[in-house]
Every structure is written in structure tokens, then in C-alpha cells.
Backbone:
């Protein structure tokens, strides 16, 4: 297999060329940290990307498990399940012909032939060097429409709070969808705008014959490094302000009883899920209520880790922890039953995860939030947003939080 190391001076110029490669490959996934460290600085890559002209996919968790013996990189996604009785939704993974890596704090690009390619390294490198992505020169004339009205939202939140009052569950992450008709052909430039505006550490651009995905997620679902698992749920959000004002915002976020209650419930859920695949006594909360500023929002992030039982497989791990508690609520199964009755649409990729599995079996997956999905078959572009509903939730404030989360995505097409 072919490989090459290229030393560079300007990171963003190299990234632009990597994104431009998307134009000449059918299956693409680019995971970009945007020079933003995740909580506790856990992670070794600035960028990981896979490119292939084969559209063959691994569409089952067992197929992925078997393919791990190939010792090749794999990229893909797991959707939120449509049925609460099935923990794993639709699975789409691919083994790219080419993998590109940029490690944190290095000025080198690693190009690796992952599986046999029809291209020689020199030909691939020529494609890389010639790549250009122009930022959008004009904005499409369209707007997003909510599938759930504000009145419907307030009514459903009232019902969720009543369920909580009666002890059915403690917390639910309730989500709504916004969609629009998309006529423009090229979404790639908007991903560059999204990276610039959000600088999220778990951003992903993906392309397939079915459509495109633009994700600016700040949240890690699960990372495996050797025999260690790390989960970093986000629960708690407020608006970013400038200077001293944001220090007050972060202090307010960290001291909020409501936000702390939401966060600790999910931490307990994650600890319980990890206990199904990790050794007794190894599960630790490395950071509780870590307060982190991003480009437009502040988030409350906790980090939970555990040491894997030696026999735990990729399938075992995903069945134990998916879907992530930060996007369901607590207790997980009971909440999932009610999510199906309260939400108008299936979540699909939203609340699922996307990422990569390395050749050595280590992996890193995000939480698919702050995500635009374009479906070629319907020419629809849509996104979903949500917030955690507890008994102390104020419905109007929760609705405003949803709008705030969606503003960054919609603003791509307005500026």
C-alpha cells in the first residue's frame, strides 16, 4: 500500500485542498477539529478524512465487526433508531481508498492508501494539489420552515412536564425539525463557512450518492483509545458574550441548578451504560460540569471514562451505549418510548453518531447535532434542534434555546 508525508506551512490552505477533493470522489467523509480542543484536550487528530469512488457500504453492525479484521480505516454513521425496541438505527460505513490525516500540533499531512485504489499516489497527489473550493458568490433565495409550530411546541412541553410530575421519566430531550427546498447544487462551500463561523471540534462534511451532510457538532459521543472508553456528554447551554460578560455567563451556567441537574442525570446514565462493557471499579468521572466557550455558545460538558472488559467488541460497545443519553433523557428506554409519540418525524442522523474506526480498532464518534442534511431524492435540506426538558423547564425558554441553536445553521444562507 502507498503512503506519503507532506510538510506544510499553512494549515487552512491544506484543508481547502482536502475539502476540494470531495468534488472528484463519490464517498467522502471529513472530520475536522477546526483547531478547537475538545474537553480535557482528549484526541490526537486535527483532521481525518476518507475518500473513495466505490460506493460499497457496510450496512450492518455485524458487517462492521467482521470487517475490523481487515485492519483498515472505516468511516460512517449510525442513525437514531426508529423503534425504541431496537437500540441501533440505520448503519452506513465505508472503507475509503484514501485516508488523509493531520495530527494535532504537527505541520504534516499523511496520505495513506487504505484499500487498493486504481489511482497511483502521484495521480492522487496531483488531484490534491489542484483542488480549489470557492466560497459562495450568491445566496439562495429560500427560508426554513418549522414542522412544529410554537403553540404545538409549548403544548407538548406541558405534556412532557406532566409525565415528569407523574414519575414516568425524569428528563426528555425533545426535538423539532426545520426544512427547506434546496435548488443550489453545491453545498461544499457552505461547509467552509460553517467551520469558520462555528469552529466546532467534531465537525463533519460527508458526501454520498444520496446527498450531503454538514455538521458542526461540539459534542463527542464516544472515543476508544486502547482499552479506554471516553464519553463527553453536553447538557447545559447559554449564549456566548464578550470579555468579562462571558465569564459571568459561564459562572451562571455552571451554578444553574436546572443545568446541573440535567447534566448529572446524563452522567449517571453514561456511567451505567459504560458499566455494561467496562471493568468493575474503572468507571470515573474525570470532569463534572466543565464549562467551555465555543464560537456562539457556552456548554456544560462532563467527561466519563472506563476500562474495557477484554472481550468487549465494537458491537457490544455500541449496543451498550447507543443512542447517547444526552440526546434521549433518563431513564433511557422509557424516554425513548415517549419520544416516538411526541416528535413528528423520525430523527434519522440527528441524535445519531458519525466518525471513524482506525486500522487498529480505536475509534472516535461525535453526536450528530447542529447538522444540515441534504437529500437528493427530495431536494430537501433540513435540520433538527432540541433541548432537555425537566420539570423545572420553562417552555418559552426551551423554545428560544432551540431557535438559538438553529440560528448558526440558518445564518449560513443569510450573510
Residues:
Amino acid at each position: 500500500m502507498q503512503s506519503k508525508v507532506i510538510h506544510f506551512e499553512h494549515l487552512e490552505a491544506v484543508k481547502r485542498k482536502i475539502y476540494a477533493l470531495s468534488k472528484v470522489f463519490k464517498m467522502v467523509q471529513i472530520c475536522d477539529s477546526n483547531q478547537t480542543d475538545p474537553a480535557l484536550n482528549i484526541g490526537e487528530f486535527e483532521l481525518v478524512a476518507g475518500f473513495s469512488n466505490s460506493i460499497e457500504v457496510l450496512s450492518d453492525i455485524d458487517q462492521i465487526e467482521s470487517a475490523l479484521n481487515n485492519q483498515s480505516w472505516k468511516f460512517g454513521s449510525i442513525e437514531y433508531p426508529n423503534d425504541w425496541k431496537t437500540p441501533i438505527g440505520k448503519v452506513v460505513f465505508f472503507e475509503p481508498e484514501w485516508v488523509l490525516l493531520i495530527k494535532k500540533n504537527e505541520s504534516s499531512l499523511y496520505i495513506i492508501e487504505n484499500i487498493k485504489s486504481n489511482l497511483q499516489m502521484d495521480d492522487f497527489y496531483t488531484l490534491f494539489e489542484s483542488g480549489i473550493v470557492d466560497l459562495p458568490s450568491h445566496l439562495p433565495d429560500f427560508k426554513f420552515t418549522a414542522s412544529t409550530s410554537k403553540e404545538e411546541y409549548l403544548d407538548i412541553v406541558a405534556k412532557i412536564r406532566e409525565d415528569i410530575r407523574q414519575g414516568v421519566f425524569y428528563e426528555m430531550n425533545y426535538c423539532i425539525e426545520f426544512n427547506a427546498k434546496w435548488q443550489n447544487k453545491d453545498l461544499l462551500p457552505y461547509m467552509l463557512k460553517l467551520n469558520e463561523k462555528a469552529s466546532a471540534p467534531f465537525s463533519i462534511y460527508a458526501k454520498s450518492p444520496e446527498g450531503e451532510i454538514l455538521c458542526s457538532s461540539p459534542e463527542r459521543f464516544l472515543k476508544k483509545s486502547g482499552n479506554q472508553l471516553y464519553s463527553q456528554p453536553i447538557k447545559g447551554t447559554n449564549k456566548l458574550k464578550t470579555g468579562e460578560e462571558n465569564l459571568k455567563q459561564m459562572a451562571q451556567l455552571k451554578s444553574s441548578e436546572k443545568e446541573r441537574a440535567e447534566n448529572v442525570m446524563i452522567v449517571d446514565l453514561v456511567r451505567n451504560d459504560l458499566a455494561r462493557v467496562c471493568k468493575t471499579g474503572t468507571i470515573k468521572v474525570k470532569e463534572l460540569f466543565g464549562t467551555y466557550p465555543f464560537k456562539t455558545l457556552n456548554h456544560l460538558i462532563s467527561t466519563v471514562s472506563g476500562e474495557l472488559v477484554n472481550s468487549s467488541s465494537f458491537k457490544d460497545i455500541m449496543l451498550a451505549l447507543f443512542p447517547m443519553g444526552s440526546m434521549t433523557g433518563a431513564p433511557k428506554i422509557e424516554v425513548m418510548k415517549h419520544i416516538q409519540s411526541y416528535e413528528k418525524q423520525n430523527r434519522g442522523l440527528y441524535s445519531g453518531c458519525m466518525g471513524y474506526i482506525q486500522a487498529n480498532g480505536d475509534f472516535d464518534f461525535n453526536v450528530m447535532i447542529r447538522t444540515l442534511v441534504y437529500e437528493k431524492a427530495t431536494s430537501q435540506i433540513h435540520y433538527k434542534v432540541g433541548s432537555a426538558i425537566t420539570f423545572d423547564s420553562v417552555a418559552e425558554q426551551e423554545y428560544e434555546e432551540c431557535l438559538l441553536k438553529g440560528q448558526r445553521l440558518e445564518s449560513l444562507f443569510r450573510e
